[in-house]
Structure formats: structure tokens, C-alpha cells
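Can't attach files on this board, so I'm pasting raw text. These are the components:
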Amino acid sequence: MSHTAIVEDKATHSPRSWNTLVRDWSSDQRAFKNVPWGKAMMWIFLLSDTFIFSCFLLSYMTVRMSTLDHWPNPSKVFALHIGGQEIPLILIAIMTFVLISSSGTMALAVKYGYQKDRTKTAILMILTAILGATFVGMQAFEWTKLITEGVRPWGNPWGAPQFGSTFFMITGFHGTHVSIGVIFLIIIARKVWRGDFDIERKGFFTSRKGRYEIVETTGLYWHFVDLVWVFIFAFFYLW
Amino acid sequence: MAHAETHHAQGHHAQGQQHPIGIYLWIWLLLFVFSTFSYLVDYFQLQGMLRWSLIIIFMLLKAGFIVAIFMHMAWERLALKLAILLPPLALLVLVGLMAIEGDYTFVTRLQSFVQQIQSPHEHREVPEFTPGH
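---
Top answer:
C-alpha cells for the assembled complex are below.
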């Protein structure tokens, strides 16, 4: 596919029209035009990850619907004593805000990455990683608190034993994603800082020229982690 | 072939997704507002249909803004949009199936373990299968 063809295509047809959809899918070699291969593969990976998390959330739905026992009230389970007062679900709310903030800094990092602003991109990515690590830290605190209170995958003091198993499975898998994301962010931030993408330094593993597109790909993963948390927050903690 | 060159031909800055910073900051703010609202749903202990519909609405708004703006899906070509956004709809079938399954299990348990419902006890080591307590 020649470059001029793509440019003409953009001029005569909106990239959002059904016409271009048919053309894109029936063209040779590339269905996803204007999308780097790394970004397309990240989207496809995230699609598969969507199904994994959906399976977890749906099995949670199934056990919660089918249990005869009273389901523990998350509002009380995740309450914290602050200043002599019991504030419901406050820890989870703070974790939500921390993760949303990290998504905001990541979005800005992607923007500055495409502007080739090396310093701002690296700083914003490190900031994102710090917020992500904070989130994981708070999750570790939450796990510790619940375990000392007697929550186990096979039972808990407040009701349906399935509460523990679904809680540890879902938040554990999500926390693992956040941790991997933090590592991913640090690796890419280091490359940005070193100027790898300004000199198109070849990747250690892929031997391909390094480009700022990887910042957006990293961003896609990070926003997805935030996206999953939106659903966990709604279905597990608020429902 | 390589699409990056196409962009280079159009101008040295026109590579990848370029959007004004304002849109990110607005979406960031909106996500904070919607999160606060969904927290307040719990804080004020709204119950029933009102609670569930508010939770779902705020969840979908947040998810939509993250995917559309932060993940740039709004600006992608239709070919990618549909390839990524359509398949998850199949999950709705799974939701339906598992809801039927969960309901069935619940009714079956209700029929088999009625005794336990009539005499509930608080501290059970082994649930379900302990006869008479």
C-alpha cells in the first residue's frame, strides 16, 4: 500500500465511514492503518484481558446470586476509623482517586511523548509509576487488614464464604496488573529519559527502531488497568 | 508499509495522536467528579434500583471517557474501533447465561437446605453440608 493512497483515502473518505472500513479490512497486509503494530497488538491483548477479567467478575456475580448466606456489606468491611469516626469505604475511594490521577498523568505523558518533550514525558511517566505503586501499597494494607480480621478464601466472620475467594482473586489479579504496569512504566520512562526514541535506538529484544509510539502503547495498558478498576469498584465494592 | 513516513511528509510534528491538553484535563476532572458521585451513592446509602442504576451510569460514563479520550479510541479508524469494541458485547450472552445458572443454583439450594434457612447459625466452619445443628 503506497503512502499516497492512504493520504488520498483520508481526503476523500472520512476514516470513520463504513466505506473505509470495508476498504481497510479488504486491503492487503494491514487492516489497521495509521496504527503501529505494537499499538494494534496491545489493543488485541487488552481485548483478551477484558475477557479474563469479565470471567472473574461474572463468576463473582454467579456465586453472589447463588449463595444462601448474607453477603458481607463492603461499605462496612472496607470502612476505616479516622478521627474516632467510622467512614464507609473510604480506603477504596482514595485508591480510586489515586488510580484516576495516575491515568491523568499518563495521558499527559503520551501527549508530551508525541511532542518529543523528553523531560516532561519521563517525569510524568515516573509520577504515574509512583501513583501506581501507592495504589498497590494501599491494596497491601487492605489485604493485611482483612486477613487479620479473619477473611480467608474459604470463609469470613460476616457471611457468605465466597466473599473472600472472589475478593482475593479479583483484587489480586488486578493488583498484579498494576504491579506489572509500574515495572513497564519504569522501563519505558528510563528509555525516554536516556533519549532512546530521539535517536531511534534499536530495541534490545525486537531490534526495531525505538519510537515515541511505545509511550502510547504503555499508556493503553495503564488506562486499561484503570478501566478494569472502574468495573471492580462498581460491581464489587459499591453493589 | 511504514505509516510514520507519511506523517513525516505532512510535517515534523504531526506524528501520532495530537490533541490539545485541555481535553485531557477536562476528562481528568470529569473522572474525579463521577468517582465522587459513585462514592456518594454508597455514603448516603441509596438502595434498590436507584442505587444500581446510578452505579451503572457512573461506571459506564467513566469507562466511556477513559476508552474514548484517554485511550484515543474516538480518533481511531472504524476498522480498529469495531475490531476492539464489538467482541466484548458477546459477554452480554455470558451475563445472561450465568444469571440463569446462578438463579437455578440458588433455588436448588433453597430446596435442599431449607432446614438451615429455618435455623440459621452464625459461626459455621463447614457450610451447607452439616446436617442438623
